Amino acid sequence: MPNMDTRNGSDDAATRHREHRVEELIARLPYRLGTTARWLRRPSSRWFRIPAGALLIGGSFFSILPVFGIWMLPLGLILLAQDVAPLRRARDRILDWVERRRPQWFTTNERASLLLSPSPSSRSACTPPTTGRHR
Length: 135
Known about the structure:
The protein is mostly helical. It has a domain at 13-99. Helix content is 68%, strand content 0%. Helix 3 packs antiparallel against helix 4 (72-81) and helix 4 (72-81) packs across helix 5. The longest helix has 24 residues, at 4-27. The radius of gyration is 21 Å and the shape is globular. The chain starts with a helix and ends in a 9-residue tail after the last helix.
């Protein structure tokens, strides 16, 4: 029989990694969106998260109308993924794929600015030479 403590420890580490990855993405959002996303992810917000996710998915079927759109479908699925295990696994697979393709999305804003800013030597190579008067 497998040792349940070891299994739970690895599950906890995997869960912490998934939560950290989602928090890294939320940290890249504007302040108000980030605070709203964090509020929605709290366990006490489940009473709001599930109906909101279902309404967003339902609203995506009316994408031909001006306010509604297909953007509502992934947002509703992401909200429901917090509480529905099969959607959570799908979300984790998608995040794995995104992390392989765009690792800079999973860094905090300070680290991202350092990773994405060009080095001083490449900046000088891209800057046009200045010659006296500007036209």
